[in-house]
Design goal:
It comes from marine sediment metagenome. One of its GO terms (molecular function) is DNA-binding transcription factor activity. By secondary structure, this protein is mainly alpha-helical. The protein has two domains: 3-75, Arc Repressor Mutant, subunit A; 77-123, no CATH class. The chain has eight helices and two strands. The chain has helices spanning 3-6, 9-12, 17-28, 33-40, 44-56, 76-94, 101-113, 115-123, and strands at 60-65, 70-75. Helix 4 (33-40) crosses helix 5. The chain is elongated and about 50 Å long.
Length: 125
């Protein structure tokens, strides 16, 4: 799966191919600027410039953490995915741990559809 499938078509219209590639790379797991630069064979300053543009367009989240202030990038869809899962789990807990069959089926379909993204987020958190 790639970020292009997670975004609205109009979100991508103004992006060039390098920016689209950057979104695809970032959709799999949070990455540092250096990792992105090596993957796309671009310079770190070029990646930083592109990331700033994508952040200003509200397509990604940039989070600086750790020693050396590594910059980690996630697509906005990844953020929404985590929030959605948390809301579902809170709802199940409030309902006493049970969920209607129809809702459970929809949840399972949604998880299967987004499994790659969910697994990458869980393993890279």
């Amino acid at each position: 799966m790639c970020a292009i499938f997670y975004m609205e078509r109009n979100d991508l219209e103004d992006l060039n191919n390098k920016d689209k590639q950057l979104l695809i790379v970032c959709s799999h797991r949070p990455m540092s600027v250096g990792e992105i630069a090596r993957t796309l064979k671009l310079s770190p300053p070029s990646i930083s410039m592109r990331l700033k543009k994508l952040e200003e367009a509200d397509l990604i989240t940039i989070e600086k953490k750790g020693i050396g202030k590594k910059t980690f990038v996630r697509t906005k869809k990844a953020d929404k995915t985590l929030k959605y899962i948390a809301e579902l789990l809170r709802g199940i807990k409030k309902a006493g741990g049970s969920i209607p069959t129809k809702d459970l089926i929809n949840l399972i379909k949604w998880i299967l559809t987004n499994l790659f993204l969910i697994l990458s987020l869980i393993t890279n958190s």
